[in-house]
Input
Amino acid sequence: MRNLHFRRAARTSVLGGAALVAALALTACQGGATAAADNAAGSTPQKPAAGTSAAPASDSTKTDSSGTSASGSGSDTAKESGSATRAPAAKKPQDSDTGSGSLPTCTGANTKLTITSVQRPVNHMLLTVTNTGSKACNAFYYPFLKFGEAQSVPPVVENSKPQAVVTISPGESAYAGVTTSSADGSGTGGYSTQDLAVGFQDRNSGAAGGMVDVPLGKDVYVDSTLTVTYWQSEMDNALMY
Output
């Protein structure tokens, strides 16, 4: 009877121990799962690998406050947009780009001079210079005039000064108006002559080439009121003074 009681007690102990072991194992499993969840929730985001950007692709086209692209230099942006301007090609040097950097001066060597009387205004003549050369030339200031044996050239009408130097293209002409004498007879020291010599000026107001003889064709009376205008591009402008 005593042996039977002892066997039951031992069996009960074994069963109780097995249950205790199973309970401990279950608790350990639950604790491990909880710890893994806690670690996942509390971990920091993984940093991107070196050489990559954490910003979305669309952010690469945003501009900063200065208007430049955050994705790179302005030249890179221009290349992508196709709006970059090419550097101009080197140009072949022209006559105006070399030497003094200006067109040649009009002289007796590259022009032809003529002078004619006009009905209006009275006592006026029109001096015409035509470019006979192959290049445009500049007619600086006003022509030097020498009627007959005059020892000096007549003064210029200052009000006739153009806004820019008159440039004469090949085959084209420029003009100067000449007042030979006063209409009311107030001039003095008058004389008649059939001889006229015309000279040109350079950009420094010096003589450009020699004097050119221009036939008058008839006697022309000149006095102390003799004047000349600046070279003009238009005939009408030359006869306004």
User: Anything to note?
Assistant: Residues 111-238 form a domain with the Immunoglobulin-like fold (CATH 2.60.40). The longest strand covers residues 137-147. The CA atoms of residues 178 and 228 lie 5 Å apart. The two ends are 161 Å apart (CA to CA).
